[in-house]
User: Fold this.
Amino acid sequence: MKSVEMGALWKRKDKNGKVFLTGNLNIFPHGQINIVIFENDYKTKDTMPDMKIYYTPVGSDMPKEDDSNIPF
Assistant:
């Protein structure tokens, strides 16, 4: 089966220098959604996820390098 590109991610830094990923994901047949991926700072067990993915509605502002509204 041929691979199909489903989206793209970019590395960004918050105001404290912490790296996160932001980008878009094509969810067929629904279309494109914006996502933000943060490292899970609250991980205390191996069974907990390493990263958390958040959906941001298309048209809203994605976090930027100097954005102070990042939840972590």
Notes: The first strand starts at residue 7 and ends at 13. Strands lie at 7-13, 19-27, 31-39, 51-56. The two ends are 39 Å apart (CA to CA).
